[in-house]
Design brief:
It is built from 13 helices and 18 strands. By secondary structure, the chain is of the alpha/beta class. The protein has 2 domains: 241 residues, 3-Layer(aba) Sandwich (Rossmann fold), CATH 3.40.50; 155 residues, Molybdenum Cofactor Biosythetic Enzyme, Chain A, CATH 3.40.980.20. Strand 13, helix 10 and strand 14 form a beta-alpha-beta unit. Helix 3 packs parallel to helix 4 and helix 10 runs parallel beside helix 11.
Length: 424
């Protein structure tokens, strides 16, 4: 019998799940990401031979009751595998509210499933421009670091706008449980953090991090907790990175290099992202000669009307980007209004064998489109730039199996990202 994985994780959207997969692969872990919530026996079979196993979900966009129904069974199944740590992979900007993607509710569920007192919560990810200092969270945009409630994208997020930078206060609005903070200066005394995490109060402890060393100190304390049962933790890809370092070393080489393959053909990008950065990426692709089309949200016939020009362009070897018109717009577009149409265009292109490389933009959009396509698993095949990765799809459908897929969060990637992906 293979050893159980040392880390299990549930991610609250698909782009976040891929970020966790990247952090683990960089550390040399053999990691697999499942895109459906499997039965316990299936989960155990899928995890066999892997250092880490993850399940991608959609909790970031769910109401509390819906979140409960999706998250609790997965956390219970992961706990049953007996890993050292189970992480709820959350966004590094702590996207959540009392009514949507509630991390407070996640804290309550995790404490019940794992029988745990204090749950470590770490949202910083310094290599991605996310920092927590004295409990307050900061996020970079356009090369400038902003306090979370003043960061241009997050302060005006269409679903979970950030009104508070103190994470203990922000999360405290989502649960009656007490939330505390641990300052970065406290890492000078590792025993102090371990004692705090071993207690039953507060229910959740927000951990500062400004550097990679802080991530590793925090993760080392998490891994040092009572090993008689899995430890539950909530946090970003920064936490995943720290945990991978604390749980290693692993025997597998790190992130694979991109391997160009002649004849890969054109790329199809579909986007429901509201981010101004995505809008700049779309404009850059258009300037580079891509066909740019916009989907009319909520119109079932709109995608059908775009199918012919999309397929004709791909057939001619021209890469295509189809967006919802939401990026940088004043009025956001609901994911449910655009995801079916975008998924239908991807499906048509894949079935016609006109592309084997697809990019989906937007965290919630990535989750919905990937689910609608019927993909079942992802493994990383290339890391073209920064925290952006190209994955190979596992699927029961032969037409979809092996598709190269990049899931891009709205605020992720350089402005020329689409061209970089095309030229791999």
């Amino acid at each position: 019998m293979p050893d159980p994985p040392v880390l299990g994780f549930y991610a609250d959207d698909f782009t976040g799940a891929v970020d966790a997969l990247l952090q683990l692969t960089r550390a040399g872990a053999r990691a697999r990401l499942l895109l459906r919530s499997p039965a316990p026996a299936t989960l155990a079979a899928e995890a066999a031979g892997y250092d880490a196993i993850g399940v991608a979900g959609t909790a970031r966009s769910l109401l509390p009751d819906e979140l409960e129904r999706q998250v609790r069974p997965v956390l219970t199944g992961l706990a049953a595998l007996g890993p050292r740590v189970v992480q709820y992979k959350a966004c590094s900007t702590a996207d959540s509210s009392p009514t949507v993607g509630s991390l407070g509710r996640v804290l309550e569920i995790g404490r019940e499933v794992f029988g745990q007192g204090c749950v470590p919560m770490l949202f910083a990810q310094p290599d991605f421009g996310r920092y927590t200092c004295f409990g307050h969270h900061f996020a970079a945009e356009g090369g400038v670091v902003h306090r979370l409630d003043r960061q241009p994208t997050m302060a005006h997020h269409p679903t979970t706008p950030m009104r508070e930078s103190d994470l203990a206060v922000h999360l405290g609005h989502q649960t009656p449980l007490p939330i505390g903070s641990w300052p970065f200066r406290g890492y000078a005394d590792p025993g102090g953090l371990l004692t705090a995490l071993s207690s039953s109060s507060p229910a959740g402890l927000v951990l500062d991090a400004l550097t990679e060393e802080h991530l590793r100190a925090a993760a080392a304390a998490v891994v040092a907790l009572d090993g008689s049962r899995p430890v539950f933790a909530i946090g970003s890809g920064g936490l995943t990175s720290g945990l991978a370092h604390a749980l290693g070393p692993f025997s597998r080489p790190g992130t694979p290099e991109a391997r160009p393959r002649p004849g890969d053909g054109p790329v199809l990008v579909v986007s429901g992202s509201c981010s101004p950065l995505t809008a700049r990426q779309v404009r850059h692709a258009e300037d580079a000669g891509w066909l740019h089309l916009s989907l009319a949200p909520g119109d079932p016939a709109a995608a059908d009307g775009l199918r012919a020009p999309v397929l004709d362009a791909l057939r001619a070897g021209r890469s295509v980007v189809v967006d919802s018109g939401a990026a940088g717009a004043d009025v956001p577009v609901a994911v449910d209004a655009v995801a079916p149409g975008l998924a239908g265009l991807v499906r048509a292109a894949v079935d016609a064998q006109l592309t084997r490389r697809v990019v989906v933009c937007g965290g919630d959009t990535s989750s919905r489109v990937t689910g609608l396509l019927g993909a079942t698993a992802l493994e990383i095949v290339a890391n073209p730039v920064g925290n952006v990765v190209l994955c190979r799809v596992g699927a029961d459908d032969p037409a979809l199996d092996g598709l190269e897929l990049l899931l891009k969060g709205g605020q992720v990637g350089p402005v020329d990202l689409f061209e970089r992906v095309r030229s791999l």
